Amino acid sequence: MKKIQISPSILAADFSQLGIEIKRLEKAGADMIHVDVMDGHFVPNLTIGPPVIKTLRNYTKLPFDVHLMIKPVHKYIKDYAEAGADIITIHPEATEDLKNSIKHIQELGKKVGISLNPETKTDVIKEFLNQIDLVLIMSVHPGFGGQKFIPEVVNKIKELKNIQSKENLRFDIEVDGGIDFNNSKLVINAGANILVSGTTIFKNNNGDIKKNIETLKLI
Prior knowledge:
- The chain is of the alpha/beta class.
- The chain has one domain (5-218): TIM Barrel, CATH 3.20.20.70.
- 32% of the residues lie in helices and 18% in strands.
- The chain is built from 8 helices and 8 strands; from the N terminus they run E-H-E-H-E-H-E-H-E-E-H-E-H-E-H-H.
- It has helices at residues 18-27, 50-56, 77-83, 98-107, 154-166, 184-190, 199-203, 209-218; strands spanning 5-8, 33-38, 64-69, 87-90, 111-116, 134-138, 172-176, 194-197.
- The chain has an 8-stranded parallel beta sheet with strand order 1-8-7-6-5-4-3-2.
- Helix 2 packs parallel to helix 3.
């Protein structure tokens, strides 16, 4: 079983002091930093772009787990790679040629992630599972933080875990959306090894992010 890793989402951080927030996360034991990029087109919200990520890169050596919720995504991949992303995760619906986009990310020397929305079937990516590093299962509809966890996605996690075991594949299974102390064990038991969490990490236990990260790992 893979070690459980926590990727705190800075979407729930104080945007007026993101650099300081990232340093706090590193000190508190975060394994990576989850950066949600939204374009107001593919999803109904706007967040940050490459210049901000490039600036934030100076505050930590932790991997940047960058989730691109933008369309069309292919032409922007290089910008995020050069800004400092270590893992670049894209949606199948956001590219005209998923195979080509995967290759592009790899050629830039970055890890490849593919994200599945709650309604997206695993069939869409099965042929690529031996080529990628990570599958990001969305347990909410992407676009906003603080949403409630959709329990139906647990079966999707189990399905991917079964494929992974049966075919001896090495991709990580990451889950993002409404992750808290009540459902984290559920997704870990289903097969997830990376948990993305924003509100729970930044808001619970009076903002004790170290305690919240440790609790999510040990549940």
